[in-house]
Amino acid sequence: MITTHLLPSASKEKLQKVFVELDKNGNGTLSKEEVLEGCKLAFGSELTPEEIEKIFQAVDSNESGEIDFNGIQMTHLQF
Ligand SMILES: [Ca+2]
User: Fold this and answer.
1) What is the DSSP string of 21-52?
2) Structural domain total, the chain
């Protein structure tokens, strides 16, 4: 994945930490609820349902309703 190489390793590590923290049930993917709750805690900002939908549309290419770590890296780059 190209985006992986664009991220400095430090921020990738940080991102992975955030990802693990957001993944409350530890299944390796993030549900909409986990992203919503996580962003509130991590960034102090509450995303609107529209913003969550946008993120999932961009990241969740197979429409599983969950996003994985590769997906969240792409999301990070769009912020
Ligand atoms: Ca999860």
Assistant:
1) HH-TT-SSSEEHHHHHHHHHHHHS-PPPHHHH
2) 1
Ligand 1 center to residue 24 CA distance, Å?
Answer: 6
pTM over cut 0.70:
no
Q: Which domain holds residue 24?
A: 2-78
pLDDT digits 0-9 by tens, 3-31: 555 556 667 787 788 888 889 999 999 99
46-77 residue pLDDT tens: 888 898 888 888 888 788 889 888 776 665 55
Residue 70 Cα to ligand 1 midpoint, Å, equals 14
